[in-house]
Amino acid sequence: MDVKIVDTNNFDNVIRKRVGRTPLIRAKNLEKELGVSEIYLKLEGNNPSGHREDRLAYLIIRDALSRSKPVISMGTLGTVGASLAYLAQFYDVKCVFYVPKRKKIIRGITESDKVEIRPFGRTYEECVNESRRVSEKYGWYDANPGLANNMTNMYAFSYVAEEIHEQIDSNVDTIFCQTSNGSSISGLNLGLKHLWVSEEISKMPKIIAVSTSHGNAIVETYRSGVKNIMKLGQPDVSESKYNQNVINTESFNGQDAINAIHDSLGKAIGISDTDLLEATRKFRELEDIKLSIPNSYPVAAFMKEVELGLIKEGKHVLILNDGKVDIDIRNIKKSALQVNYNEFLKKLDDWLIQFSDPIEEIREAVDDAFNNGFVICAYRGNQLVGICILSTSKYEVFFPKYHLSYIATKRDIKGRGIATMLIQKAIELTGGDFSLHVDTDNKRAIRLYEKMGLTKKYYRMFYTGS
């Protein structure tokens, strides 16, 4: 079967295919430690800027441009702002961020010709309100959470549910998700509800919303047993460098989040800094995953539920906002190989297993890739763990310029999203101008390629005699 990526050299298409489609991996060491059979980690740190909020930032930019509003304004503590700042460099937009005075921005944002930072007030809520006022005055795009952007926020995170379903392809029991203003929870519920209505899943997973204890309106509303979102006064928790992004006294999308929690028969859990730090320490000892402390709330909540005996056997997903595998993806030259050339070819041959070709054919494709195309390698701790070979097709117009001849990963390191990252790099380097062949029986590979934006165009047939 021949597969060809939807052809466009538009860089927006490259960015679109890099946002989302993040790895979902088994946490086998954590499973063994906690005595739970199946724990999956959704690694949102593999988004372009390293955070889940890239999903929302991309839709905000698209919406702003479609409305002919190239100036985007919002109040931020740095989470969504940093994603917007990163993606803005690829588009004809400018971002104006209102940030609280004398507060450290959580994710670094640097001023540039695309980014202006305006310190204002003492709280996040004051920055949001000022940003709204100025946006209305000057006709800027108001990217702040609330009723006007409710659907954009929800749709941005609804795709996470679809990806989890594609990657597990069976019913999930619980999904633990960190929240501040509630948009991630309501969006996740929207995606899950769509899957249920279309009969792609037979039951809804329980959504477990996780935030700080005594400082988040969603958690406190659920804890109080009321159905309408509460507006908190002064938080009963001291602000720290770990919880400052999830302390939210008004929770602009809070009502939708509360509805989603009850709709899925889930719950909201508050986590203290002490529990957060201990859970992060334990997690880092068990799993080779990069994860910051302020984004470890789902891990801490899951461990807490296990300790209380509230987790049953089944499939459980933890969405980690900036969790990522420590994989380095490089486009390399032949001179940069860390092993001799014949050994490199042998590794590729071994990793291809039953989908390999005669070594002479492999050598010809790799020679062409080094000379005219791309050889993309994945390294983990400076050890080679994945290879992607992009040879040339010899055509400029008749056929895609590049052909993905081979892609393979080390046998004992499957399930880390390495193939996904290699294909993302291939899309970036070629602008999407490549095709590939895939065995019709290789269903797993076909699902991966389709998830990455490739489509089946036609069957490639060979003459073998009458």
Outline the structure in words.
With 466 residues, the protein is of the alpha/beta class. It folds into three domains: 2-12 and 327-458, Aminopeptidase, CATH 3.40.630; 21-51 and 151-325, Rossmann fold, CATH 3.40.50; 54-149, Rossmann fold. The chain has 15 helices and 19 strands. It has helices at residues 11-18, 28-34, 54-66, 79-88, 124-138, 150-168, 183-197, 217-224, 254-263, 273-286, 297-307, 341-352, 359-372, 418-430, 443-451; strands at residues 2-5, 24-26, 38-43, 71-75, 94-99, 115-119, 141-142, 174-178, 206-212, 267-271, 289-290, 315-320, 324-325, 328-332, 374-380, 383-392, 402-409, 434-437, 454-458. A seven-stranded mixed sheet has the order 14-15-16-17-18-1-19. Helix 3 crosses helix 6 (150-168) and helix 8 crosses helix 9. It is globular, with a radius of gyration of 23 Å. The relative contact order is 0.14.
- Radius of gyration from the alpha-carbon trace, in angstroms: 23 Å
Q: Give the N-terminus to C-terminus distance in angstroms.
A: 21 Å
What's the count of strands? 19
Task: Label the CATH architecture of the largest domain.
Answer: 3-Layer(aba) Sandwich
Helix content: 25-40%
CATH topology tier name of the largest domain = Rossmann fold
